Amino acid sequence: RQHLRNPIEIQIIKEPVKAGVAPRVHQTAYLVARPHKVAALARILDMSSPKSALVFCRTRLEVDELTSMLNGRGYRGEGLHGGMNQAQRDRVMQSFRAGKTELLVATDVAARGLDIPHVSHVVNYDVPSSPEAYVHRIGRTGRAGRGGEAITLVESRERWLLQNIERLTKSKVEMGTLPTVADLQAKRLEHIGTSIQDNLEAKGFDQFRVVVNTLTEKFDPLDVAAAAIQLAYGAKTGDRVEEDIPAIRDRTPDTSQTSRRPRRGQSDFPESARVMRGGGGRPVGRRERHNQFTSMATLHVN
């Protein structure tokens, strides 16, 4: 101030999160244990069939691993993080914008400033550490008047983070139920039926009629069609054995109750664990311990 003329002080205040964020975005969370998160995400994607989804991860390593696992399950996914050079990032973004890539798995830093109108789903592979990050993530969908889906995978230890997001954004995140194996099988058969119907309407399968004519001379036409669908279903699922994902009990933390430490002299252990008793039921003193239990080692807690 001594060396400046008419100095002006500018203070930057963090903008509060607006209530009712992203009204066009349907928000759903699924409670799932970490070992089952990849399988859970794959099932959710199978059921929702997104044409363009953005999956957020916390670390570069998680981006690479999840991208590889999802590609192994038949998805067309690309990773995007700060460890890639500019040419690689440009190639990935061009592919995603053109619709050649179904899933873009990215970190927050790499996806900063991303604006792609056709993103239908945003997935939080982990719960964001701040409500602001959550709002920015799910804001990537529901653009230009379109609706969008925001999906969050929640571990038990992250439940309180989701509560903070709901409280600060004044919006409710619906807790969903993970699809079962039966749900997944029904959805896959529905997809196959739709694909067959589209193929029938498009024609162009005359070269396969000779095979069908030969088979229907020996077998019932309905059985021939069912066998063909069975082959198509097997080609889609491969040899992977699907099992139901174990459900996790939703233990919503009670933030109104504060944990209290025991007062001096109190203990969480029962009397039998704190005091060794002598023959008459009287607590054994230090002098008696040395006399009566000379061959015993005693561990004192607290």
**CATH architectural type of the domain at 25-175:** 3-Layer(aba) Sandwich
Largest beta-sheet characterization:
7 strands, parallel
Number of helices: 10
List unreliable stretches of 5+ residues.
255-294
Rg, alpha carbons: 30 Å
Decide which structural class fits the backbone.
alpha/beta
Q: Fill in the CATH topology of the domain at 25-175.
A: Rossmann fold
Helix content: 25-40%
Morphology call: elongated
Q: CATH H level of the domain at 25-175: which superfamily?
A: P-loop containing nucleotide triphosphate hydrolases
Mean pLDDT: 81
What is the distance, rounded to the nearest whole angstrom, between the alpha carbons of the first and last residues?
58 Å
| Number of extended strands | 7
Biggest sheet, spatial arrangement of strands? 3-4-2-5-6-1-7
According to CATH, what is the class of the domain at 25-175? Alpha Beta
Helix and strand run? EHEHEHEEHEHEHHHHH
- How much of the sequence lies in strands comes to 5-15%
Kindly describe this structure.
The chain has helices at 37-48, 60-72, 86-97, 131-138, 159-169, 181-202, 209-218, 221-237, 271-274, 286-292, and strands at 25-31, 53-57, 77-80, 103-107, 121-124, 148-154, 174-175. It has 302 residues and is of the alpha/beta class. Among the domains are: 25-175, P-loop containing nucleotide triphosphate hydrolases (Rossmann fold, 3-Layer(aba) Sandwich), CATH 3.40.50; 181-237, no CATH class. Strands 3-4-2-5-6-1-7 form a 7-stranded parallel beta sheet, sandwiched between helices. Helix 4 crosses helix 5 and helix 6 crosses helix 8. The longest helix is centred in the middle third of the chain and has 22 residues, at 181-202.
